Input
Amino acid sequence: MPTRLSQLFVRTLREDPVDAEIISHRLLVRAGYIRRQAPGIFAWLPLGLRVRSKVEKVIREEMAVAGAQEVLFPGLLPREPYEITGRWEEYGDGIFRLKDRKGADYLLAPTHEEVFTLLVKDLYGSYKDLPLTIFQIQDKYRDEARPRAGLLRGREFSMKDAYSFDVTDEGLDASYQLQRDAYERIFARLGLEYVIVAADAGAMGGSKSEEFLHPTPIGEDTFVRSAGGYTANVEAFTTLVPDAIPFDGLPEPTVFDSPNTPTIQTLVDLANAEQPRADRAWTAADTLKNVVLALKHLDGSRELVVIGLPGDRDVDLKRAEVAFQPAEVEAANETDFVGNAGLVKGYIGPWSATGLILGSESSTGIRFLLDPRVVDGTSWITGANIDQKHVFGLVAGRDFGSDGTVEVAAVRAGDPAPDGSGPVELERGTEIGHVFQLGRKYAEALGLKVLDENGKLVTVTMGSYGIGVTRNLALVAEANADEKGLVWPREIAPFDVHIVATGREEAVYTAAARLAAELELIGIDVLFDDRPKVSPGVKFGDAELLGVPTIVIIGRGLADGEIELWDRRSGERTPIPVHDAAQRIATEVRGA
Amino acid sequence: MPTRLSQLFVRTLREDPVDAEIISHRLLVRAGYIRRQAPGIFAWLPLGLRVRSKVEKVIREEMAVAGAQEVLFPGLLPREPYEITGRWEEYGDGIFRLKDRKGADYLLAPTHEEVFTLLVKDLYGSYKDLPLTIFQIQDKYRDEARPRAGLLRGREFSMKDAYSFDVTDEGLDASYQLQRDAYERIFARLGLEYVIVAADAGAMGGSKSEEFLHPTPIGEDTFVRSAGGYTANVEAFTTLVPDAIPFDGLPEPTVFDSPNTPTIQTLVDLANAEQPRADRAWTAADTLKNVVLALKHLDGSRELVVIGLPGDRDVDLKRAEVAFQPAEVEAANETDFVGNAGLVKGYIGPWSATGLILGSESSTGIRFLLDPRVVDGTSWITGANIDQKHVFGLVAGRDFGSDGTVEVAAVRAGDPAPDGSGPVELERGTEIGHVFQLGRKYAEALGLKVLDENGKLVTVTMGSYGIGVTRNLALVAEANADEKGLVWPREIAPFDVHIVATGREEAVYTAAARLAAELELIGIDVLFDDRPKVSPGVKFGDAELLGVPTIVIIGRGLADGEIELWDRRSGERTPIPVHDAAQRIATEVRGA
Output
């Protein structure tokens, strides 16, 4: 039976909701697909639920092709498994925690690695049982600090999460590839542009990880891409390390007065004025900037660490979070400086005439980590650890060492890709899928072992694969909308055809109802705008707003045996004869 | 493609899980359908999820027939709407509450009346928009004190909840009937026996309510049924009130000594010894028992109330909970008696020679409520409010009054049905569905009004209709199991056919695979036990445990062109020729 718009639980709105920042959010609310219940928490109206079910169907079909089996876990889970892997603590404020009436701790699960691991441990015990990939489509919870952009960053959202279990690393590679391939097919079917980028395995604690990013100006993530094909999100980008330079013949360091040099630029200006170079002017890239960060460790302790990086670079706190996880990172504050008298604020450097200042072996004992560009033999202008004094010609590897390198400098357009494929561009994107090789971390922590061919217990290696259902739906809406409303790809449109009957002639409504019934009979989903007292203009506006890909207008032309086919995306209207309309429309819908 | 048992994520267990009290729980765990995650919280394995999806499909189809439209609400909801209707408090310990990172209060919704009301208020504004019935199939949460019996009383469970919206009472009646009819069709399709009983509208605050109970000895509810067709759960049962009796000629009350009468029986014995009746012996039914209850009101206050009821009856605390809701009820404790010196424990009665003792107008001021059988003119033996003394011939309406009647006495087999349809029997049952006429309570509280035909704002009247998805699944399992395992009705079986290939002949496995493929091609879901190294005995045992209704055995007989059809329910095995097996099996499955 066709769905009659006069009966459908929907109301279209002419006004944008006040809290909606992006197109998809505005349109999904205005077109009556979703309604906000709380920040980042939405109810789904019939139209929205239809689209959501279709996205789920696409995912289920491709999971079946990939040989993954569906299960379903609860959203409410006990603390213990997450305690064992340390994630109960690591998630910080990012998850919802609660107690039951007996005072036992629970969480609303943000992801399910632990309990999937335990389930497989419960059921399986032999290498013969593996490989196994199981998945669920389930509502997840994250207590986001800033739920935003409608469905894009929700606090309750639907995800497909899959987990693979293998005995060998090669097995994991194969399982990983099956999911990765399935994701490519899913995004192709959703019509969602994507880039696969190397990602940091992050809090998941894995070994290899790739993100599927959808390039979009509203994206929260930044990723880099080289003409030669390198892609990575900025957290995973690694610096192309220059060769070390021989020290021979490099002049000794010279301390000089540098009053009134609060910024790198004033220091560079002073250097150019006082000690001009013959070949070129000094630039910020010739200075070594020493940035003091404070790490808040899980055990509550606070550690200062100094990052030495070229003065033309800033520390990217998101990269730093990844580099130092699970610790939290922030800029050092006044109290930190007061407590570390060895650091002369504004004039910090690794070296002073009396000895090393930075590094775990130095007088301060503060860890000193270098940007990978600061290779041995590079010479720097940097602080001399004396108020109003800097030093020229301080050579890495000769005058100072470090506790290692760290990837925390902000990535810039033009930076060389680490694989030699040329300079990178920076783009905005949103994560639409994520594939992880977790390795043995979870299986180890939770004791998931199986007997191998020789009867020996071996720890299982795992993968974890996530794809957002509701987020992807929103991104499809975002990517396909125009100023008039939603434009759904056929694969996930709430209906295949939207029939609009106009005017007041009863014959028109009868013909429209007959065509709708005919189409439903051959398996085409029809939304039938049968509202008798609504003007054609309002009906057309609603049709454009709702975004069903094929619209059929039945009105005055019917007397001459003609109706109109209206393509929502192109806007093109084509008159077609009513007598074989069903056939013609079916061809249009099925693309045959 | 048929599902191969060698690949399916399942393990059957020979041992019953230690925590499983009832058959369905034991078998669903042993057959690999579900796994416990926490008390009352389960994960669903592939077999379980298939059955669950089929139950959902039955419900969705019947909701469509009833004209209900599907939506989906979040499980995590803000406190405010529940605060307005008072349910945030009323639920007491029965719900999960939590705070987000900003300290805002949320709950995991146990039911969604408030937000459905608000959604309709948000979208609709005219009588022309109504009637409307919308529903969801969604995971609900209740923090049960004693989660038990596997899926029967879970803390996270799936429900279909529907809500109807009408302008008129007649409209509500019609919407209610549509859902009620749908429930009857659903239970018929699930093959689940049911009784529709009058129910107390209870915490939902409505005006009319019926429960669908599945009669089962493991049920938590008790209901009554008369031969004449009256049904009610005991909470909703009402007493057939006897006629009042004239006072004329009834003797005056006499106080008598009654030492050592700690029980009703000792009191009756004493009465028969000291003041024997001419016509018959005194019985417990001639005594008036005065039971002191303590009500804990929502505002935290504690009120004592005394119930006067025939001495052969006990107070049923579940009926008392309903009678006094939203207050909680418990027996009065020692402290209560200490604080109310007017009550002479063991000798409490409404009357003393010096005046009335019970009732809001009496010396104690304690509310006194009577069982409806204590009509005016009835004469009682009861406490005299003096230690070791009782009174004879205390006449209701003459010697004492009350603050009204109350339905808290335990119902007994043989009690007359209130509609005059004869004595009732008591049976155990479990609630499998509930239909409520909420009336205007929620719409009133949350301001859901629409314009009527005259342009006047009127408050909408609502219904609420719940049916448990996971609970019903468990009850179907429970009602159909035998000592060998599960026995699914075809409508919700995880597969239509379970093909078992036995022995080691490759030809057998090839033929089985061919038959499986053939059946799948004509739309029959097949589970194919293709495990090469498992004995026939184990395979048959697994088939019986898993409970697919039609089992096909392919083994040695194949050489003679014969295979076996095995009906799981009857146990009957029928040899059939392999050459037209697919056709024969299809007929069996489709019941044609």
Summary: Residues 285 and 312 of chain B are 5 Å apart (CA to CA). Chain B touches chain A through 50 residues (CB under 8 Å).
